[in-house]
Specification:
Elements (H helix, E strand, L loop, with lengths): L26 E5 L3 E8 L4 E5 L5 E7 L2 E5 L3 E4 L4 E4 L5 E5 L3 E8 L3
Length: about 110
């Protein structure tokens, strides 16, 4: 099944899921030649193992609390906070509480 992405000019709802978060899944919002944007959903205790992508990344916590594990330190993101990671930076993500985040990835040609 093909992923459905937003069309140019389409408005997307990124309000917190709140009590509905446990029924939500990570979803790709859109992808262009230069940019990919997704909403990542992780329930408390779940994690994404250390990984890296070629392009620069931002992780903007929309709800809950996330621990972003970097090579030199771990940073905590609460709602409304954002972290920038340079391309090829190894990072892992762990949900301290049920959480969702807006993740942007700059794509390299």
């Amino acid at each position: 099944m093909a992923l459905i992405h937003a069309s140019p000019g389409q408005v997307l709802d990124l309000h917190p899921f709140g009590g509905r978060i446990s029924a939500q899944k990570t979803s790709a919002l859109f992808k262009s030649n230069d940019l990919e944007v997704m909403r990542v959903v992780l329930l408390a205790g779940r994690s994404l193992p250390p990984h890296k992508v070629a392009g620069d990344i931002t992780i903007h916590c929309l709800e809950g609390t996330l621990a972003i594990e970097l090579e030199a330190a771990t940073v905590t993101l609460d709602p409304g906070q954002l972290v920038f990671l340079a391309g090829s930076a190894t990072h892992g993500v762990k949900a301290i509480t049920d959480a969702s985040a807006l993740v942007t990835i700059a794509l390299k040609p």
